[in-house]
Structure formats: C-alpha cells, structure tokens
C-alpha cells in the first residue's frame, strides 16, 4: 500500500466518524489501523513519518472544531503518536539525532533533532527551511551584514544558515520553549556567535506584549525569514499582521520579509489566502515558484517563494 493510500484510509476513517457521538471510536479505529499496518515500511518509514504526524494532527484539530473536547483530543493524539513510535524511530532510541545539511558553498550545517513527542511539529527540519537556506547560499537574496529575525525557527536551520551566510545578527523566534531550547543547542553545535533565541507568540500580534521578550534596541530587523509558516488557515490571517507589526516596530529602513512554503495540494487555499491578506495590508508581494535545478539538494520538491516589503 502506498503512503498516499494510507493517508486516504486514515482520512476516510476520520471523515466517516465525524458525526459519531462517541469520540473514542475515531481514535480506536485509527490505533487499530496503525497496529495492523505496523509492518508496512511504506507507511512508517522515517522519510514520511513526519508527514504522517503532521497530517494526523491537522486532521484531528479540524475535527476538534466540529465536536471533540480539546483535552481529550490532545491526550488521544499523544497516545496515537506514542503508538507510532513503537514502529518507527520517532520517539525511539535513535533520537535525538544529528543530521548534516550540505550546501553548494561547501558549508555544512549540523542540526540535532528531537522526537515528535518532545517538540511537536518542530521536531524535525522541514524541507522549506532547507530551501530558504539554499536560496541564501545561492545569493538569490542577500543577508550579509543584515539584522535578521526568523519566525517559527523550529530546529534552527534557517537562522543558523543566515548567520553562516554573513548576517550581522540573527534572532531565532518560536512560541515553543522546547523548540527554542533545541535551536539554542544547534546554535552552539555550529559555533555560531551572532545568533540568539527569543520567545515570540504570533497570536499576540495585536497586544503590547508581542515584543515583551525584546529590548527596544533589539527590534531593528532588516530581514524577516519564515519557512513553512502557513500550514493552517489561521496562520494565513496571523502571519501578515506579524510581519506588518515588525515592519512598523523596526528602526531599520526598508525591511524585507521572505517566505518559503513547500507546494502541497492540500495547502493551496491557505497560501493563496496568505498572499491576499498580505496585499490587503498594503504590503508589496512578489511571488515565485522555486523548483529543482541541478545542484540544488532538496530533490524534486517545489516551493512558493514570497518577497514582501512596504511601499511601492
């Protein structure tokens, strides 16, 4: 059975059970399906396990908005993820692990990753971060001598790459303390001295508390980087305001934001809405599709690449 077919089978289970009054029936069917297919390397290989968990979490959260209790949802999701851990490296003895991310400029970056249960969706380095880092490496856009902030840093690859490729100062932000701790360890692992980590909650963009973890003189960013930052519709509305607030707050002239998002069919609407909302805030948006070219190391994946700035 192909991986896509496994996802369709799980999705069918979820959708068929939306109207059931007993929430547990949904989870029991999922757990039974996982157990029955535990020998399938196509379903539980390391290369697709993150995609599976991302899908599962998103689907369960979509169901939660219909009928499920949030506490119960979180407990059951954790139980399902633990079950998957029995058949994969996720959560098992192979984690944390250190991966080497190579670049054309012969700069290697080392990233240590946690398991899913430790860091949620920030447990692994998503390929859009590598794409963003590769674009810096190829000088598609320039961060040399710039003050950079990354939104949703995850494992830290994007921010560490910015530092390696000449940024003057890099601030890696996330709303997960566990992700920030891992990013801080990866900064140290790569001997980067110009990068720091800060807590930043996008949901507080309209609050005075948004920049609470920053000193006034630290909000002087010239470049904003965000990779795979729009995997839920909510983010298509939040991210534009986050970027606009940083543009307004920064003391630097002519700040620019760059976003990379892997092209996935199920996220088409979210990405289109993100672009529309950016423009609705009178921000300028230049959109490109970045695909495979010889020498690029992110395979056949394609990405939406957005350049965002103020003014004409």
State the main characteristics:
single chain, 312 residues, alpha/beta, Rossmann fold, 7-stranded mixed beta sheet, two-stranded antiparallel ribbon, 9 strands, 43% helix, 17% strand, globular, disordered N terminus, Methyltransf_16
What best-fitting shape do the alpha-carbon axes yield? globular
Strand order of the largest sheet: 5-4-3-6-7-9-8
The largest pleated sheet is described as: 7 strands, mixed
Name the CATH homologous superfamily of the largest domain. Answer: Vaccinia Virus protein VP39
Radius of gyration: 20 Å
Helix proportion: 40-55%
Let me know the average pLDDT. Answer: 78
Question: Would you write up a description of this structure?
Answer:
This protein has 312 residues and is of the alpha/beta class. It is 43% helix and 17% strand. It folds into 2 domains: 3-85; 97-309, Vaccinia Virus protein VP39 (Rossmann fold, 3-Layer(aba) Sandwich), CATH 3.40.50. Strand 1 and strand 2 (109-113) form a beta hairpin. It is globular, with a radius of gyration of 20 Å. The N and C termini lie far apart (51 Å). The model is unreliable at 1-5, 17-22, 38-49, 63-68 and 87-93 (pLDDT under 50).
